[in-house]
Amino acid sequence: MWRRSASFILDKEDNAAQPPPPPAKPDTLTLSLSSPPPPTATTIAATINPPSSFSSSMADTLQNPNPKISAYYQTRAAHHGVVSSDWLAQAQAVAEPHLPEGWARSGSAAEPGGGGGGGRPFSVTDEFNNWRQQPDLAEAVAAIRALAAVIRASEATTMMELEIELKKASDSLKNSDTTSISLTAGCDLFMRYVTRTSALEYEEFNSAKSRLIERAEKFGEISQKARRIIAMLSQDFIFDGCTILVHGFSRVVLEVLKTAVQNKKVFRVFCTEGRPDRSGLRLSNDLAKLDVSVKLLIDSAVAYTMDEVDMVLVGADGVVESGGIINLMGTYQIALVAHSMNKPVYVAAESYKFARLYPLDQKDMVPAERPIDFGVPIPAKVEVEKSARDYTPPQYLTLLFTDLGVLTPSVVSDELIQLYL
Asked: What total number of domains does the chain contain?
């Protein structure tokens, strides 16, 4: 199925028509599965404040999972929430032509655990935890890197032992945070893509292991290209003078808008605040640095401003079998308002977020809660809704921009079948 995806088509055209590519720019993510990046402590310190408390809290969550509190959304808040002092300093420097010193670029990365080096026993959860600290790295890609490290660090002597070890590592990652849809989908797709070849049954073990590592790295490369491909495919839908409504912070949505700026398109963005972690403030800050006209909205002002909007563009935490999406709380009501006013709703989502789920309603999902601070004391008798996400049915979505192509919601089930065959 990957042979007919957009990434292979683009690669084939690039190889035929262009000379070897120049060295990657500093703001391009070019991390290799086989060669982990060097540590950049300054960037990590500026992006995650403070790093020590973030790492310890994340590790505690993974090692002692609480099914009622979503580690996935706690990580999102740590990466993209803006209630820290460093964000205020960055906001004051928006007018500067260059990024402030220490601001995290998409190419910055923390050094992973190194596959159990330094005398420490290898732990796939620790490896995943280290990769996940990078704000610009998707959880699914972090899981792919961690699982690839399992293959390299394995001391198995037969393919059966190696597959069992890999399956246990995958289950361990999925169980560490059952609220993360992309983590589960990424692990499942990795297992399917890496191990689905009958040739492994007839090869000598070391050759078969090398084949597994090669396929793991290839899958990682495909996944890392996803955002760039989506950004390219979505450009035909963004026109000069349009007004785009976005909700909260989405890395793939930011990549789409960055590419539009690079293509010299002139547009305006309405950005919701994205309570309770206010991740929309971070997105508005990033867009302001690109000289994009941005208007910040409180979440409850969506209907009030919808008549000025030409399109809605959101990301997704997961794309389900019905063609609907699971995303940040508030996405459903935005889609309802847009649908009632005949505004198109576009979703930008990587194919590793396609999940074998079929929710029937808002409650038919694994609970994903996050702490909410209203800034004032709440009486003990008052119940607080802490759900972090909602489900938007497919009838309220117009198109999905994916690395497999531009899809209608009704096509998603067919693509899922192809992915998991």
From this structure: 2
